[in-house]
Amino acid sequence: SAVDGDGGRTKRKRAPFESEAEEGRIERWQRLRKMNAAVQLKRMMGKEAVFRGVQEEAITAITAGESPVVAVMPTGAGKSLLFMLPAWAEQGGTTVVVVPLIALRGDMKQRCKRLGISCAEWEGRRPPDAAAVVLVTPESAVSEDFMTFLNRLKATRQLDRIVIDECHIVLNRRYTFRKQMQQLGKLVAAETQMVLLTATLPPDEEEELYRRMHFKRDQVKMFRARTARVNVAYRVVKVGGTGRRREKEKVVLDLIKRKLGRYETGKVVVYCNTVGKVKEIAGALGCNAYHHHAVGKDSMLKEFMEGKQRVIVATSALGMGVDIPDIRCIIHVDRP
Q1: CB neighbours (10 Å) of residue 169?
Q2: pLDDT tens-digit series, residues 152-177
Q3: Out of 3.30.930.10, 3.40.50.300, 3.40.605.10, 1.20.1440.230, which CATH number does the structure's domain 244-332 have?
Q4: CATH topology agreement for domains 16-224 and 244-332
Q5: For the segment 28-79, what is each residue's pLDDT rounded down to a tens digit?
Q6: Stretch (H or E) spanning 298
Q7: d(Cα 11, Cα 125) in Å, to the nearest integer?
Q8: Three-state SS at 267
Q9: Which of 17, 54, 148, 193 has its CA 20 to 30 A from that of 202?
Q10: At 178, is the pLDDT very low, low, confident or very high (cuts 50, 70, 90)?
Q11: Cβ distance 98 to 223 under 8 Å?
């Protein structure tokens, strides 16, 4: 379905400022629908910029007002362009982006700044005004204060769309510390364009995602790119014996040393299932232990991304939305 009109509700007489705001919204969407996406991409990113994969198809659907739009694209394939380009082209409206990671929010904010897109992070006591992009955590997105903010944006005809990044977490019961991700279906009540982005949505989980988000399947515009990585090799090492813990630790240490020697500039991530194991392996390696409750985890990630640390040991808290191009080896201690 397309974003337009008032959803069939009984209309009351509008105040003059409401009529002006509605006219502005209509004109904004008319310009978006007529927009040449390829031309605008070059204006925003440079004359050499071209669309990749399903980017152009998805952006065409978004600028046409289709809703909901679901895009499944591999990490590093440019999912954020799907909302950044429309927001850059028409900055009179507001795009709300639900982002689960602090590090990713910081990265998005910097990218918006470089592109000249006004961007702000949601702070409950100081709602952002006149920002083309508003970044919000899942916890805040379903809060009463944020819903009030959304209603205000809607009343002033400024709310253009809501984007949920890493939307597969809506389905993941293991992320007990992010229960609000499973409540994001509440945002449908805002009656605005919905755009969901992920690199991880198997076809057999589509129906469950639609159910939790209160989407009707026949209304969803799905764009799916190939996410399998042909340049990735998998290897399983079985570790047994009486000194299993020590042996496992030795296997991990030896493997990391070999990989670091092979790739002079590459990075290694070691995943463990528990915080205790993360601390234990990190202690043996002399590197940072990254988990949800770790003190200074943002600076840990920054150091790792900048290459100041080539090895990091982490729980799955590190995996959401992090795009680090020079990771050469990922080791899972125990079954993932």
Answers
A1: 22
A2: 999 999 999 999 998 887 876 654 54
A3: 3.40.50.300
A4: yes
A5: 999 999 999 999 999 999 999 999 999 999 999 999 999 999 999 987 788 9
A6: helix 297-305
A7: 32
A8: strand
A9: 193
A10: low
A11: no
Task: Find the radius of gyration of the CA atoms of the chain.
Answer: 22
Give the pLDDT of residue 3: 59
**Residues, the chain:** 336
- From the centroid of its chain, how far is CA 304? 20
Among residues 93, 136, 145, 149, the alpha carbon closest in space to that of 117 is found at 93
Give the pLDDT confidence of 272-304 residue by residue, as tens digits.
989 999 998 899 888 999 998 889 888 898 889
Q: Is 34 exposed, middle or buried (0-12, 13-18, 19+ CB in 10 A)?
A: exposed
Task: Give backbone dihedrals phi and psi of 160, rounded to 5 degrees, phi first.
Answer: -95, -40
What does the alpha-carbon distance between residue 102 and residue 42 come to, in Å, rounded to a whole number?
29
SS3 state of residue 312: strand
Domain 16-224 is found in CATH 3.30.160.20? no
In 3-state terms, what secondary structure has residue 159?
strand
Residue 319 vs residue 287, higher pLDDT: 287
Residues 6+ apart with CB under 8 A from 110: none
Domain spans, the chain: 16-224, 244-332
CA–CA dist 289, 277 (Å, integer): 9
Which residue carries 């899942």 as its tokens? 138
The reported pTM is: 0.77
